[in-house]
Amino acid sequence: MTLMTPMTYVENLWLFFVLLSGIIIVPGMDMFFVIANALTGGRRAGLSATAGIMLGGVYHTLLGAIGISALLAIAPWLLNFMLFAGAAYMIWIGVTLIKSAITVGAIRAARPSSLWIAFRQGMITCMLNPKAYLFIFAVYPQFIRPQYGPLWSQALVMGIMTAAVQLAVYGALALAAGTSRTLITGNPTATIFIGRAAGALFIGVALLTAWQGAMTLN
Fold it and tell me: Which end of the chain is more exposed for a tag (fewer CB within 10 A), N or C?
């Protein structure tokens, strides 16, 4: 008798959604960029920066799917290796987040710029983030699986989910930039708690997906 049945595709998406939400609400470069633009250029500039970051997030999702497709075509056994290596990396991220105390100093307003510049800078900042590339090749093999159907359709759904969560979180921050800055910079206890909760989430998801991956090999 097995202790746990393999996850369905819907359950897999819910788990991805929970992890994605935990990642995005942790204060970081994208969040600060949105608030800084909103403080200078108003809500429209903040939302333009958000739109650029959303496009960057879709780019990373597609890149992760292309990488997994290439692995399946060239060396299918590498996908299992990346699944367990990625799970180990996620656990390392989780432990790092739990041990660290995330605090945020003052968020300075960005230089006034056009809406197009805010959008472009948000997109480029997100696309060129070196940590994002390590992240997608650690996380995406946990969730994009051949048994769930065509990889392009899975990537499309995950890309839409990523953009939607970014819009919900960063868009809300852009609409209330002054309040958002006060909440983030004025309550270090809350940011520390968010970081540590996200760390625990990383570890839990990594262990669960590694277990599910091990079951599919049996």
Answer: N
